[in-house]
## 1
Amino acid sequence: MENLLFSLNATAPIFAMMVLGYLFRKIGLIDEKAANWMNKFTFKITLPVLVFKDLASQDFAGTWNGKFVLFCFVVTSVSIAVIALFSKLIVKDRGKRGEFIQASYRSSAALLGIAFIHNIYGDAASGMGPLMILGSVPLYNVFAVIVLMLTAQPQGDAAGVQDDANGQRASRAQGDAASQGTSGSKARDNGALIKKTLLGIITNPIIIGIAVGLLWSLIRIPQPKIFQTVVTNLSALATPLGLMSMGATFEFKKAAKDIRPALIAAFIKLFALAAIFLPVAVALGFAGEQIVAILVMLGSATTVSCYIMAKSMGHEGTLSSSVIMLTTFGCSFSLTLWLFVLRSIGVI
């Protein structure tokens, strides 16, 4: 019972904030414009400030854990590769396969990871959340672009090369030429998209917050009282604003579409990855805050940016939104279960 109460105390306040966001949206206190602003403000300001705060006050030698970062990097890479192979058996539609892969591995690592660690360990957290983000989030973005690009449905398939029963060679030649022109144009567009995305990763506010925090910790720059107060006040907004905005954008109707692959993706996201890699993490000696960070990386809800990226790269987005809805609702139970198990065996 004590372990169950510990797990519920860690998860219930977080999902209560999401429920409040949903209720505030229903009664009109938060509209779509406000929810989008909250998401944008959290991503660009409060979360980077929070990860900076976590790392800037830490001793660099004590905070950095190369083994932990490498573990997050390797596990994320292996997870993506295995899910990509598995998706060919589950999803036959090429476009939806890309959405399935992305939604099965991309976690709300920044928001939920830091929220969970702070909720359990408070200000005594030693920076494993930001280090977990450093080892996984850049890979999330890079592979999302690659996967969605390779599985995007060509726009001109229906009007491509014709191959009728009579075999009109001239028409086929014209179609081939048009196809080559389109392919060249798409190749240039894809190259520009890759460069833009890589630049976006480098300029990602959260990654910048981590880099500045680590640099600040290494150089040991003093923090004036006024500076500390401003940073503390801004960082305190990250969790409530982010969670309420996530709840405010929740739509139950979208979860009913593409239910079979969505349920499979949700199971992978909430249970399968954690069941495979958590024992490996424990065997390697990770414990406490490290295990909680790894748990969130493996088994938290799918990030809402999956839907945004899928839509922006020519995918329908329905499967992505369904998995987001299912995992957001389901992780309140699954993370409580995982925390209960980990607490019961003495890992946290």
Note: The mean pLDDT is 79.
## 2
Amino acid sequence: MERKKPDNHLKGLSVIIALLISITSWIYVVYNYDPMTRVTYQNVPITFIGEDTLADKGYALSDVSTESIYVTLNQKRIESTKIDADDITVVADVSNAVEGKNGISLGIVGPEGTQLVDSEVRTISVTVEQAERVEVGIDVMYLDESVINVEPIATNLTSTKATVIGATSTVKTVEKAVAYIGYSDTAEGAGVYTRNLVAVDSHGNEVQHMVIYPGSVNFSAEHGVVKTVDLVLKTVDNSDDNYERTVDAPDTIAVKGSSSAVESLSRLETKETDISYIYEDSDIELQVDLPEGVYLANTSRGVKMHVKVTEKVEPEEKEEDNG
């Protein structure tokens, strides 16, 4: 009697089923019996809440002992590759802080399924000062520091000025409020954006622990090319008095626009400024005549001319020599 050969298809199916059972069993064991492991995360940022409440009371943070800490979590080994420092929440509530030095307890929470084992500190020190407020302009800038000679062209901003509240010792270093967007955001054309505002100093560095109103702005933005062109200053002095007025202003200015808008541009003129009635040294913001589609670059916004006023000295009459 002839013996039947085993069916290769059935044999292959059996192998596949066995593999699926093995994989399913492994996944079940790993997720349900995976041994716990301890992982330490460095530079976990501290989120400060209640600074707006302090500002309402006329106070602000002037110094904190640290802006970030390390945190150690107990967690399933398989989850370790899925968790990073940004998944851990560290909160310092300063709403009830008083003037002077304060100890603030930290609230530390890891992702679901993890347990807090250790942290660098559980309490930080913050210093509270009297607050002051300054009004600054708002710029829209690219977050990417590597890009040069390009800048977003922002229009239709819901606000062009911001009020910044901070400690007396630090708020005066704030030069402007910035809404950052990515370079790639405008690479393919114009868009509409909502961005939070950040207080920055004259070097472009963020000034921490500032309360900003409004906290965010809406605007339209498109890609712009930055170009430096010659600037012709136009002033008029019709005075007939005993004062001499001299003017000092930049001879170039940076503008931005589409490639076609700025390509042939080589010089611009200011609008005529009457300095006839200026009687003391003054700084006057320049008003530049800009062609359609051309805007002042962020670095040239608010550029000023300096008017120096000196009193004319009449020459002394020589006394007649009767000798």
Note: The CA atoms of residues 226 and 256 lie 4 Å apart.
